[in-house]
């Protein structure tokens, strides 16, 4: 029998800096009232200069590992889902791998925009169910404040920074991620895009002048698409997992806009009490929004072992997807980890590896910095 993929650890990290609607109204022509009425958002978090997509990802990951009682060396796979990666390459997942000292893990980034965490969880759970991976770390992390145009009131009011991480582990006990649905429609790619900096429009003075390195969005069309797909994707995944809609304890949707979430819940004929919403405090953190909402739902007692959950999201691509989950919680006996001291040792190890590589390169005359 193939093993089940259980969510055994979870963690979130958000920057300390809160940016309120009122503060945004000092930058662009908007008001707190308009933003709250049209989106439900009150405030969002913005990364400080020393924070980035990787540092937020590492902070969330260490919390998830600690809860799972798993050490980073036991990980086989790390997937970081992000639309605001540290670099185009190397993958942010490899930076996380190095920072946490996951010496035996493969690591890669996955880009499916706001649906990314669902896609990444589905991929990791499939690897576990196929038997090729025992322990996986899936992270959704964003610093969208670095790629939004702070002069564009249609987008800058929406987004926020943050990260959430899940540890997935194989177990023969039934439960965990039971079904997943992934969908896409590239014909709507231009509705939400970051056009510059890729191979189509490599960064030049002109692309910067044209603002092509910022998020562009047709909000109205994205809104229409989102309200169309959210409830259907929930119904489809519930059917695939054998859940009745009335069985679902909590829907955890992508936190983009309260009106979109309310429309989806109406389409499911489910009351808002059975839906997790925390976008008023974080805005839209894209791929990080579902794990952040999940962590807060667990911490406030809204999710208990055995509960039936649906994660559902949509985003650029266009992409959308959903997962049906029977919540389990940690499966290993709780083991105390000391992230701070562990971190210190891992930094030393990484530094030693870099020094050895540099010495070898100098000895053999192929130091990349020599430009030979
Ligand atoms: O993760 C996926 C990410 N994307 C989304 O989830 C976006 C989904 N879309 C939305 O959430 C909504 O489309 C928005 C909240 C972005 C906009 O709401 P809307 O009801 O679709 O407004 P709209 O774009 O149709 O614009 C209506 C009016 C326009 O003024 P006029 O032309 O009617 O005079 C806009 O210029 O609202 C104006 N407007 C604003 N006014 C004050 C647009 N943004 C703002 C603003 N403050 N921030």
Give a structural overview.
The protein is of the alpha/beta class and 372 residues long. It folds into two domains: 4-326, Thiolase/Chalcone synthase (Peroxisomal Thiolase, Chain A, domain 1, 3-Layer(aba) Sandwich); 341-370. The protein is built from twelve helices and 13 strands. It has helices at residues 21-25, 32-39, 53-68, 92-100, 116-129, 153-156, 205-209, 219-241, 258-268, 279-282, 289-299, 339-363, and strands at residues 4-13, 18-20, 43-45, 77-81, 106-110, 135-143, 161-171, 176-184, 192-193, 216-217, 250-253, 308-315, 319-326. The protein has a five-stranded mixed sheet with strand order 1-7-6-4-5, sandwiched between helices. A four-stranded mixed sheet has the order 8-13-12-11, sandwiched between helices. It has a two-stranded antiparallel sheet with strand order 2-3. Strand 12 (308-315) and strand 13 (319-326) form a beta hairpin. The longest helix has 25 residues, at 339-363. The protein binds oxa(dethia)-CoA. Oxa(dethia)-CoA binds at residues 30, 34, 38-39, 114, 153-154, 157, 217, 219-220, 222-223, 226, 256-257, 284, 286, 315.
CATH class of the largest domain: Alpha Beta
Corresponding CATH architecture of the largest domain: 3-Layer(aba) Sandwich
Share of β-strand residues: 15-25%
Element-level helix/strand string:
EEHHEHEHEHEHEEEHEHEHHHEEH
Biggest sheet details: 5 strands, mixed
Number of strands: 13
CATH fold naming of the largest domain: Peroxisomal Thiolase, Chain A, domain 1
Assign an overall shape: globular
Span between termini: 55 Å
Helix content: 25-40%
Strand order of the largest sheet: 1-7-6-4-5
Query: Which class best fits the helix and strand makeup?
Result: alpha/beta
Q: How many H/I helical runs?
A: 12
């Amino acid at each position: 029998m193939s093993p089940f993929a259980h969510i055994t650890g979870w963690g979130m990290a958000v920057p300390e800096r809160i940016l309120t609607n009122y503060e945004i109204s000092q930058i662009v022509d908007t008001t707190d009232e308009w933003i709250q009425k049209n989106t439900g958002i009150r405030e969002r978090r913005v990364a400080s200069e020393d924070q980035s997509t990787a540092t937020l990802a590492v902070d969330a990951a260490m919390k998830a590992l600690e809860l799972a009682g798993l050490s980073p060396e036991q990980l086989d796979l790390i997937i970081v889902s992000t639309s605001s990666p540290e670099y185009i390459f190397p993958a942010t997942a490899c930076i996380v791998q190095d920072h946490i000292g996951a010496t035996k893990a493969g690591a890669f980034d996955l880009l499916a925009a706001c649906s990314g965490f669902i896609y990444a969880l589905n991929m990791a759970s499939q690897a576990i169910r196929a038997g090729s991976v025992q322990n996986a770390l899936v992270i959704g992390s964003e610093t969208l404040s670095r790629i939004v145009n702070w002069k564009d009131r249609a987008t800058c009011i929406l987004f926020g920074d943050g990260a959430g991480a899940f540890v997935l582990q194989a177990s023969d006990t039934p439960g965990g991620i039971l079904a997943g649905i992934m969908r896409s429609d590239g014909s709507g790619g231009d509705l939400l895009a970051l056009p510059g900096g890729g191979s189509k429009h490599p960064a030049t003075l002109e692309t910067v002048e044209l603002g092509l390195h910022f998020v562009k969005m047709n909000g109205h069309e994205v809104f229409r698409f989102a309200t169309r797909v959210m409830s259907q994707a929930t119904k489809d995944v519930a059917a695939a997992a054998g859940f009745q809609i009335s069985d679902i304890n909590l829907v955890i949707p992508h936190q983009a806009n309260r009106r979109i979430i309310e429309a989806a819940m109406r389409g499911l004929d489910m009351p808002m009490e059975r839906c997790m919403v925390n976008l008023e405090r974080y805005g839209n953190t894209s791929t990080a929004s579902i794990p952040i909402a999940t962590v807060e739902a667990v911490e406030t007692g809204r999710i208990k072992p055995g509960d039936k959950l649906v994660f559902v999201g949509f985003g650029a691509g266009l992409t959308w997807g959903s997962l049906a989950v029977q919540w389990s919680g940690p499966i290993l006996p709780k083991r105390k980890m000391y992230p701070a001291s562990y971190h210190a040792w891992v930094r030393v190890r990484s530094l030693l590896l870099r020094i050895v590589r540099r010495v070898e390169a100098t000895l053999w005359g192929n130091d990349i910095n020599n430009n030979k």
